[in-house]
């Protein structure tokens, strides 16, 4: 399978707080494409929480730990325990940095192993599947906005901060990791193309625009154009697009 990632620093940022891991290598503020082993590969996206100092450090720290997960004999429970240990390590790491004690990151990723395919998600990074010519959003944003929408409190949702997350890695408190979702997802197994994005992209583009991007060849030029479109719509945040092509 092929994996493509395009990441760029937001216009108001000194450093890109987004990061991605592919084949145990971490990428940020760059373009990269490679072949990956569909029987032994980790692909993930992390978006450092901008309201907390050290978001860039948190996203890279978590992905650096995740890329070392043993692929052989992996199970859903093993993956969950590994992520919880990574979170404990991040919390301990942040304690030694007083100005960054609340550093936090969201994370969405897929592990391809001989034992199966595992999806994991926390926060408001997203994973979509291309089904025919249509995109299906697989993950659900763990935000106050989405929580209110789910409860039917539409007026309250309109008034809240759409990007206020409820769960994350780190954040200075172990309770924030309680929302971690892990799934042996059948649709991810059968899907031919997977899209992952950070909120600097998906909060500013319509689903049909993302669908148009996912149909046809994937290239650096095409990914950059998508990021530019988000910028024209008002996105000043970091922007990362990751595509897994299993066709």
Description:
- This protein has helices at residues 55-66, 76-95, 144-150, 154-159, 186-190, 199-202, 207-214, 220-232; strands at residues 2-8, 18-22, 25-27, 31-35, 40-48, 104-113, 116-122, 126-131, 134-137, 169-170, 181-183, 193-197, 239-245.
- The mean pLDDT is 93.
- The protein contains eight helices and 13 strands.
- The chain has 247 residues and is α+β, with helices and mostly antiparallel strands.
- Helix 1 (55-66) packs antiparallel against helix 2 (76-95).
- The longest helix is centred in the middle third of the chain and has 20 residues, at 76-95.
- 30% of the residues lie in helices and 30% in strands.
Helix and strand arrangement:
Layout lengths: L1 E7 L9 E5 L2 E3 L3 E5 L4 E9 L6 H12 L9 H20 L8 E10 L2 E7 L3 E6 L2 E4 L6 H7 L3 H6 L9 E2 L10 E3 L2 H5 L2 E5 L1 H4 L4 H8 L5 H13 L6 E7 L2
Antiparallel strand pairs: 1-4, 1-13, 2-3, 2-5, 5-6, 6-7, 6-10, 7-11, 8-9, 8-12, 12-13
Helix pairs in contact: 1-2
């Amino acid at each position: 399978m092929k994996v493509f990632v395009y990441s760029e620093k937001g216009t108001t940022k000194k450093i890109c707080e987004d990061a991605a891991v592919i084949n145990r290598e971490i990428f940020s503020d760059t373009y990269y494409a490679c072949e990956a082993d569909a029987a032994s590969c980790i692909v993930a996206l992390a978006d450092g929480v901008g309201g907390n100092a050290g978001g860039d450090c948190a996203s890279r720290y978590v992905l650096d730990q995740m890329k070392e997960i043993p692929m052989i004999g992996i199970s859903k429970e093993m993956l969950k325990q590994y992520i919880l240990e990574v979170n404990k390590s991040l919390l301990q790491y942040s304690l030694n940095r007083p100005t960054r004690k609340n550093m936090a990151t969201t994370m969405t990723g897929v592990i391809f192993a001989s034992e199966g395919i595992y999806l994991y998600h926390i926060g408001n990074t997203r994973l979509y599947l291309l089904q025919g010519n249509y995109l299906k959003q697989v993950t659900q944003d763990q935000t106050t906005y989405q929580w209110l929408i789910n409860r039917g409190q539409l007026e309250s949702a309109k008034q809240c901060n759409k990007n206020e997350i409820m769960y994350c890695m780190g954040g200075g408190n172990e309770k924030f990791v309680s929302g971690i979702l892990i799934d042996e997802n059948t649709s991810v197994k059968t899907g031919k193309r997977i899209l992952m994005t950070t909120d600097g992209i998906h909060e500013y583009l319509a689903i049909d625009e993302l669908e148009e991007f996912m149909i046809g060849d994937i290239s650096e030029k095409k990914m950059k154009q998508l990021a530019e479109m988000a910028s024209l719509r008002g996105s000043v945040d970091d922007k990362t697009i990751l595509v897994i092509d299993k066709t």
